[in-house]
Structures are given as C-alpha cells and as structure tokens.
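Re: the pair you flagged

First of the two:
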Amino acid sequence: MARLANVSQSAVSRAFTAGGSVSEAKRKRIMEAAAELGYQPNRLPGMMLSGRSHIIAVVAGGFYNPFHTMALDAFLKGISARGKQAMVIQVESDRLLDAVVADFAGYRIDGVVSSLSVGSHDIATALAAHRVPVVTLNSEITNDYIKAINCDNRAAGRLAARHLVERGATRFAFIGGPGDHIAHRERGLGFAQELAALDACAPTMVEGDYTYRYGYDWGCTLATDGSRPDAVFCTNDLMAFGVMDAIRKEGGLRCPEDVMIIGFDNTPGSAWRSYDLTSFDQNLDTLVARALSHIVEPEDEIDDSQPMPRLIARASTNRNQPGKEQDV
C-alpha cells in the first residue's frame, strides 16, 4: 500500500491511528490506495500496546421511550466525532447494567455510557468491580468508576410550578417515575417546594412507570374525578401524551382550558400539533459531551455543573395564546 500511495510505511501507520500526524494530501492517497486494495487495518496490535481499544459501549434503554432513542443518537454522534467506535446494546432496565458491563469488559472497552440511571449502591458496587468507567445520565450514585451527569431537575420542577401558577392553575398533580429514580424524585420535590413557597395548593404526587399506557390510565381517572387537578406536571412526555389523550377522549375535557399539562424531555412528538405539549429540553448534547469527556479525557478538568433545562412553552399550558411556542 505504501508503494501504491507513494508514502512511507510510517505514514500509512499514522493515517490509520486516531490522532496520527499526517498531511491531508498523504491521507487521501493512502485511503484511495487502501480502497483499491480492499485493505482493512488490524487494530489489535495498537490495542495491545496502548491498553485502549478506542471502543465506547453505549447501553440504551427501552426504545418505547423516545428519550432513549434521542440519547442513543446523541451518544453515537459524539463518539464518532471523537474518532472512536461505538458498541451498542439495548436493555429494558438499569438493573441489567451489571450483567451488560460484565459482557463488555472482555472486549477491553474504554468505558460505558448510558441514559439509564444506576438504581442502587449495590448495583454501583457490582459495576465498579469490573474496573470499567461507567457514566450515566440522570443518576446520583457514584464511586471511583461510576460517574453521573445530570441537568438541574429540582430547578426544573420549581420552574414548572411557577409557570403553571402564573397561568392561573390552582389544583396540581405530579406524575413521576419509580421512587428510587433520582431525576424524577428531584423534579417532583422541586415542584412541591415551589408550590409551597407560592402558597399554592399542595400537589397530588403519583409514581408512574414512564409509559403512555400509564399516563392514559391515570388520565381516565382524572377525567371522572370531581376534584380533579387543573394542572399536571409529568416527568416525561410519554405519560403527558397519555394524560392528554385520556382527558380528551374519556372526559371530554380540553387542554389547556380545563387541564394544563407539562411534559419533560422535549421529544419530537411534543411539537406535533395534536399535542403542542409544553416540555423541558435537558440540553442533551451538553450532557452527552460531558459524559464522553469522562471516558475520553479523564485527566482533564470537566464541568460537572448541572445545566438548567429549558422550558419550551407550547399550547398545552397557554390559555391565552394557544399554539404559540416560546422558550421560557
């Protein structure tokens, strides 16, 4: 190949090494020669010498939830932009992370990233035993090998409360996830704290399961309850969609006139005109970039502050000007 590209053997080696120093003109000739010869580089020697595979594993959550699909897309783009390779596996529960990392460890991966949270210290200890760096989103449990990257979930809950009170809501509900998930617990806590600070009615607090079905079933109950809330904050968009469909179909209620609804994650469906759902954008690209930095540049100083999610106000909470979208 070196002869065909008219370069040295060392130039060929550098061209196929991440970060290797070679001019663009030489790199182009080398890649053209490689394509002509059908050459695929053997990465094993470099892996053995450096102890790094340049492979980052991505553990993706259930694809029923658009947020996990969004996170996977962001991780894959971020990994590619850093010149690394991705290995992907999809699971339904963070409690499977231990077994998954055990499988990955044999490939000498550089680390694991995931949008799933670590649910307990026992799971974190089991993960650390594999001595593979793991970085998760929306978690609180950390140790020497486990890092957590979060947005400011409690502040988001406070902002949701203020937003609804300012628009005339008087009776509130919060639909969260399982009680052991820190992100959703923090959102509910901020929501309740801010309502108390505003001397508003305390919210009904509900533990959900993130699914559209749960939101729909709860919305059916809400639609027939004479003391129903007139404002609902859901910890993800899927449950908010379910609540909205249920109150319309089963209760003949209107959104936002009868019930205002806020979701979380700003998934693509939130902007669909049939929902026009007010939702929080987590700044996913920022969270993913910081997570990957812990794997790729662990020696660097990394900003681990919690970015404030942006509230994207749409028609579901705008009783005065339905359909007008704005950042809050």
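Second of the two:
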Amino acid sequence: MTKQYLLRPIFLVLALIPLSANAATFFSPEPSASSTSSVVTGAAFAFGQDGFGALDVSPLPNGLSPEQVIEKFAARETVFDKARSNYLFRQTVKVQTLAEDSNKVDGEYQQVTDISISPEGRREEHVVFAPQNTLERVMMSPADFQDIEHRLPFVLTTADLPQYNITYLGRQKVDELDTYVFESKPKVLEKGKRYFQGKVWVDQQDFQIVLVNGKNVPDDVRRGHEDLSPPFTTYYEQIDGQYWFPTYTKAEGTLHFAAQNGALSQDVHMRNIVRYTDYKRFRGSARIISTGDVKSDTPETPATPPPPKK
C-alpha cells in the first residue's frame, strides 16, 4: 500500500439510503464509542407519509402473537431463500461519487452481471457490461460485493432468527399492502461477521419481506482501514405470483473518513443504485441426484407401438 492511498479513503462498503420521502418511519443507528473518527451523515433518514398509513400498535387480530408471526414469516423466508437460488437474474450496479460544490458526478463504477446456474447446479456470474472504473476518491472493497450479493437483498430465515432480537412494532398500510412492521437488531456482533440492523416490513397475506430499511453492522473504523456502511433501503416485488423478490436498492449519503498522517479528513458524497431484474426460474435439462448419477428432467418419450396386425 502506497502513501498516496494512505491520504485518502480506500474502503467503501456499498450501502444505500431511501429513494425519496416515501414511508412513515425513521431509523437512526446509535453510533458506537469507537466510531467517532469515521462516520456517515446524510444517511439517517425519515420517510414522508405518501403511500404509508399510520402505524397501528393495537393487539394482533385472531389471537396471533408477535412470536407466531415472526415464526411464520421466517419459515416462509426460508422457503423463498432456497427458491431464489434456482432463479436466473440480472444485477446492475452503479456507484457514483459527487462533487460537494456542484453535486455533479466526478467518479463512477458500473457493472452489469447476469447470474446464471450451470447444468451442475453451480451459481455462475457473467459480466455483460463493465465500462472503465473512474472512481478516484474511493475504491470498491470485497465487502461491497458481498453486500450486493448477500446483504442488500436481505432475507431473514428461521436459521437466522437466533442471531437477532426481533421486536414487533405494529401494522401499517404500505400503498395497497397490509404489512407487519418489525425492528431487527443483532444480539451479538461476532468478529468477521456482518448483520442487518433496521426495520422490516412483512406482507400480512404472504408472510414475506416486502421492504427493508436499515444498515449493515458493524463498521470498520480503524484509521487507514475504514469500511463504512451508510443505511440502505431495498424494495421487493412479487415476480411470479408466489414470491417477493428484491428488485431495487438505493442510497445517497456522505461518508466521513478520518484524517491520516496529518492529512485533512475527507468527506465523500456517494450515490449508489443496485437493481435485480429479469428473474427467470432455472429449468435445466438435467438434475444431479448423486455423484455420477444424473437424471434428465425431460420425461422419456414412450416408444411408438407397432401398428396392429390385420
């Protein structure tokens, strides 16, 4: 690592804040004592009232308890998580830095990737568009790409529940959807792992996540190694009449990097968008039963019977 890089932020965790004033909630993560040197502003957010009803905090109907709802939607998310691994889709990423004085783009990273599945069932990535990376004030880190693949399209399965404190907040109308609203916080921050912290909206009919609003934690705030994560919002759409898929994530905020080796601290205004589109269920010609045992998914065509004797 050269001195030139020590004078500027070299790690950026791609994370996103809401599209616009579009939901009746507010999330502001509490900063830790160790995060005072490298922080994010412009990324705590408030939604407006358009499209969102008031939060109903009355007891759940039909004798349901919050714990029962959590168990039901986590079980449904578990089924969806397995199903999504059998879908092909296109992932479009755009990361921009904006000049503070003009608000114009002064650096950009783009990549369009088709996510497919090999006949053997392996996930494959095929980059179909990748213009020259012009980011200068930040660099994409491995954590960015892990977030894009695993954490921005947030799924909360039954296996994930023991890692989180899930608090029921109430019921809320989101456009035409009736939803349950929960707050999610990790119980313990294990070294080397990252978690989602924020709010989750679950459709009351399908028991699936339809909107999340929060951030990935913890941040790495060590001088010279900052890996900052501003809040993000991910929107979901019902694609096939059965499952709600993550389709759009967006953020815009300012990352504050600490001063290094006597240099001035640096603020970087970011605007980032991730789209997940063109979902199609994988239909392979073969499925793996066990090692060396491959069976076709296409039913065998029965032999044509001989014509009857006259």
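Residues 1-38, 41-49, 285-306 have pLDDT under 50 and may be disordered.

-B.
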